[in-house]
Amino acid sequence: MEKHTFRRCAAVLAACTVMATAASFGTASVSAADGVSKWGDANCDGMVDMSDCVLIMQALANPNKYGLNGTDQNHLKEQGAANADVFENGSGLTSGDALSVQKYLLHSISTLPESYKQGNNPVESTTTTSTTTTTTTTTTTTTSTTTTTTTTTTTTTPTTTTTTTTAPKSNFPDMGTPMNSSATMVEDFRDGNSKYFIASDGWENGDPFDCGWYKSQTSLDNGCLTLSIDKDYSGKYNYAGAEYRTNDFYHYGYYETSMKAIKNDGVVSSFFTYTGESDKNPWDEIDIEILGKDSRKVQFNYYTNGQGKHEYMYDLGFDSSEAYHTYGFDWQPDHITWYVDGKAVYTANQNIPKTAGKIMMNTWPGRGVDGWLNHYNGNTPLTAYYQWVTYDQKGAPNGNNNNNNNNNNNNNNQQQNPWEQNNNNNNNNNNNQQQNPWEQNNNNNNQQQNGSIKDYGTAMDSSATMVEDFRDGNSRYFIASDGWENGDPFDCGWYKSQTSLDKGCLTLSIDKDYSGKYHYAGAEYRTNDFYHYGYYETSMQAIKNKGVVSSFFTYTGESDNNPWDEIDIEILGKDTTKVQFNYYTNGQGKHEYMHSLGFDSSEGYHTYGFDWQPDHITWYVDGKAVYTANQNIPKTAGKIMMNTWPGRGVNEWLDQYDGKTPLTARYQWATYNKNGKSGSSNNNNNQQQNPWQQNNNNNNNNNNQQQNPWQQNNNNNNNNNNQQQNPWQQNNNNQQQNKTTASGLVDYGTPMKSGTTMGDDFRNGSSRYFIASDGWENGDPFDCGWYKSQTAFKDGALQLSINKDYSGKYNYAGAEYRTNDFYGFGYYETSMQAIKNNGVVSSFFTYTGPSDNNPWDEIDIEILGKDTTKVQFNYYTNGQGKHEYMYSLGFDASQGYHTYGFDWQRDHITWYVDGKPVYTANQNIPKTAGKIMMNTWPGRGVDEWLAHYDGKTPLTARYQWVTYNKQ
C-alpha cells in the first residue's frame, strides 16, 4: 500500500472550505448488519466532510498514532474504517478512499461508495435519500464593506430506489481510441503498476517550472496514473508537481497516451519525449502540451539540438479536461505527425529531431510565463489522469480510424494525409507506389512468430549461399564452443551446456559456472568453415541486463594462423535500444560506432547484418542500411560466430554486471550470401529493401518492392532474373554507352534524372536556377575574386575558369555559380569534368552561413587539381568541420564527365560517384538549408593541402547539369 503524506489532504481543505460544515449530500444509509453507519464518515461524527479525509490520510501516514490501534484519542475506529472503505469497497483503506470522499464533497460523484472491489459489488442496494430546500442568509463583514449573500441549499426528499451498481476503473468517460496492446512498448496504468516508467522525485528544472517533482504527487491506485500539483509544504519550492519518465530511450515510431488534462490558468499537462545534457545528448524534444487556460486546445512543439520555436496550437473541438482522449505523434526521420483520437491533425517537416529520448508526462505550474499560460492562481490540488502509454517502433497505424470501408472507393480526388496510407481500399491497384523507406511493411505474410516472442525483422533469405535455420532444431554449419575461454574482458568460459536448439531457436545463455573454473558460464556458436566477402545476417533477440553482450560477428586470428580480422555486431545489455558496430584489421580496431535502433532489441526478434566488400562494410538493421565504413577494411576470411558473455573490468563500456542468471539471447537463423546484399532472390513481395540499392531485374513481379528513388531501372530485357549482382556495381547489360559530348569529352557518368525537384541542364546554353557570383571574394585561402566574366555556356556545358585578374584587385579571377533558392535534405548531383593542376580546386557543394543570417552549414565535393584520381568529401555543421575524407576514384576526373552526388538526410550524408555510394558520415550532420554552388579557385597558403599553385591560366572546369531531389 502506497503511503501518502498529510500535506496533500490539507491542501484539498483549502479548496473545499465551503463544505467543511455541510451536511451529507445524498449518502446512503445501510443497516447495522452491513457494518456501515454512514458511508464516508471516518470519524463517526454523523457527517461526511473534510475531517474524514484528514483522518483517513493520517491513519495511512502514521498508523501508530492514528490507525486502528493508535495512541491518539481521535484515532480511526473499526466503525470508521468500515464507513471509510468507499473506493473499491472490500479492499480495505487506501488513499483512494480519501480521494473518493473529496470527489463526493466536490460533487464529482453523487453517491458513496464510489466503487466496489471486483467480485464484491452488490447486485442491488437500497438507498434512502431526502429532499428539502432551505434558504440561509450569511453576513460577512470586512474592514471596508459588508456583504450579504443568500444561499439556497437543496437536499433530497425521501424516496426509495433500487439500483444496480457498476463502476469502471476510473470515473471519467473515455472518448479516445483503444490502447494498441500489440505495440512495441505497452504501459497500462489501469493495472495499478508501472513496468517502464519511474516517478521523478526531488527533481526540478528551474524557470518556468514553478515546482519540484515528487513521487508523492503520483498515484497508481485509482485505476489510472494521476499526476497532481499541490503546495510544497517542505518549503523547498513554491509548489509540488509530478512527473513520470521511462528509464529507456526510444527513437522513431508512434507514441500515444490516453489522458485527461487539468483545467486551470497557469498550468500544463503534457506528454513528450526528451533527451539533453543530463543524458550527454543534444536537447531533442517532441511535445504535446495542454495549457490549462484553454483546455479546448493542444499545443504541439519540438526542439532539435536546443532549437525550438515550432509551436502549433490546434483546436480540439472538445474540452480535454472532461474525459480521456488519445494524443499521439508519429516521429520519423523526415517528419513528425501529431494525432488526436487516432486522427492525424498536424505535420512538421523541417529540422526534425534525431536523438532517441525518454518518454515523459508531467504536470506543473508556470512562473514568469503569464503571456503563455496566464497567471497561476495557486489553486491546489490539480490532477491530470493517464490510463496508458504505448510506443510502436513500426510507426502510426495506417488508417486505423478511417471508417470508410468501401472496397471500391472511386473518389480519386480525395486529399489524403501524405504520411498515411489508406489500407481500407482493398482494390488499390497502384502497385508501383513508392513506399516510405523508413517504415516497415506490416503486411509481410512471411513474418515469423516464435512462441510469445514477436518477429519484427525481415524474412530469412532461403536462397543465400549458406542458410542455417535453427528453428528446425538442428545445426549443419555451426558447432558449440565447449570449455574455451578468452580471458579478459570475457568473465566466463563457453560451454556447450549453455546452448540449446529445442525451443524453436538457438538459445545462448549466461549462467553461473558451478564447476568453479570460471565465474560464469557463457555460450558461443561458430562455423567450422571460413567465409569471405558477402552479406551476413541473423535474426536475434538480445539480452537486457547491465554488464553483458549479445553478438553476431566474423572472426579469424592467431588460432587460425591468420591476422586478427573481425567484423562485429554487439548489443550491450545496458541499453538494448542501441547496437554497436566495430571491426578489426590485423588487430587494429577503434572503429566503434553506436547506432540508435528506435526499438528495444530485447523485446523481439530483429534482423542484423553487414555487407562486407573489399572497399567498405555496410551494416543493416531490419533490411535498412544504417552505417558504412570505408577505411582499412578487413581482408581475411573468418568464421561466423555468435556469443553471449558478461564483462569484467569494462564497467565504463558495459556497466557493472550484477551477477543475475540465467540470461538468454535467442537466434532464429543465420545466413551468408557471397553475392552481397542485393544478391538475394527472396520472393517475399512485401519485404522492405535497402533504399540505397538498385533493383536490376525489370521482370521481377515484386510490385510492392521499394525502389531506390534516385536510380532508374535500366535492365528492360534482362531475362536472367535470378542472377545475383554485387550491390556496389552497375549492371552493364543495358548500360548507356559512354558518349562523346559537344566539347569532345567523353561522358562516363550516369544520365541526368528527369522528374527531380530541381533540374538545371546547362547543355541547353542557359541556367534557370543559378546565377554567377560577380565581384565577390572570400579571402584566404581563396586567392581570387569571382567574376561573371569567368563563366560561359560553351560546347554544351557551363564552364567555370580560373584566369589572371587583370584589374589588379585580386591575384586571380575565379568563377562561381550559385542558386538563389535554398535547398534542404535530399539528393544532389552534378555531371562535372575537373581541372588538373597543382594548387586549384573544382567543387560542387551546398552552403549557408552568416551572409544568409544562418549558421555555417556546408556539404562539399572537392576535386583537388594536384591529384584528379581522388575526390575529397567534407562538411561543416555550425562552423565545425574536420570531416575530410579522401576517396580514390579509380579514374582521372579531368579526362571526362563523371557524376558526383550526395544524399543529405537528417542522420547521415552518403556521397556517390557515378551512381555508386562510396562513403557515409553519421556524426553531427548539418541541418540548415543552403544554396547549391559550384566554383573553381586557386589556393594561397595551403600548399600542404593543394600543392603550390604555379599561376598557370586559363584553367577550366565543366558542368553539364545539376539536379536536386527532395525525396
Structure, briefly:
The protein is mostly beta strands. It is globular, with a radius of gyration of 35 Å. The protein starts with 5 loop residues before the first helix and ends with a strand.
How would you describe this structure to a colleague?
- With 967 residues, the protein is mainly beta.
- It is built from eight helices and 54 strands.
- The chain has an 18-stranded mixed beta sheet that branches.
- Strand 24 (499-500) and strand 25 form a beta hairpin.
- Helix 1 runs antiparallel to helix 2 (50-61) and helix 2 runs antiparallel to helix 5 (95-105).
- The protein is globular and about 105 Å long.
- The two termini are 55 Å apart.
Key phrases:
967 residues, mainly beta, 18-stranded mixed sheet, 8 helices
Distance between the termini: 55 Å
Flag low-confidence runs.
1-33, 123-169, 399-451, 679-737
Structural class: mainly beta
Strand percent estimate? 35-45%
Number of helices: 8
| Overall form | globular
Average pLDDT level? 80
Largest β-sheet summary: 18 strands, mixed
Count of strand segments: 54
Radius of gyration: 35 Å
Proportion of helical residues: under 10%
Topology:
Blueprint: H1 6-15, H2 50-61, H3 63-66, H4 78-84, H5 95-105, E1 125-141, E2 146-163, E3 185-188, E4 197-199, E5 212-213, E6 218-219, E7 225-231, E8 239-246, E9 253-260, E10 267-275, E11 284-291, E12 297-303, E13 312-315, E14 325-332, E15 335-340, E16 343-348, E17 358-365, H6 370-373, E18 382-392, E19 449-450, E20 453-455, E21 466-469, E22 478-480, E23 493-494, E24 499-500, E25 506-512, E26 520-527, E27 534-541, E28 548-556, E29 565-572, E30 578-584, E31 593-596, E32 604-613, E33 616-621, E34 624-629, E35 639-646, H7 651-654, E36 663-673, E37 739-740, E38 746-747, E39 758-761, E40 770-772, E41 785-786, E42 791-794, E43 797-804, E44 812-819, E45 826-833, E46 840-848, E47 857-864, E48 870-876, E49 885-888, E50 896-905, E51 908-913, E52 916-921, E53 931-938, H8 943-946, E54 955-965
Parallel strand pairs: 5-8, 20-32, 23-26, 38-50, 41-44
Antiparallel strand pairs: 1-2, 3-18, 4-8, 6-7, 7-8, 7-18, 8-17, 9-14, 9-18, 10-11, 10-17, 11-12, 12-13, 14-15, 15-16, 19-20, 21-36, 22-26, 24-25, 25-26, 25-36, 26-35, 27-32, 27-36, 28-29, 28-35, 29-30, 30-31, 32-33, 33-34, 37-38, 39-54, 40-44, 42-43, 43-44, 43-54, 44-53, 45-50, 45-54, 46-47, ...
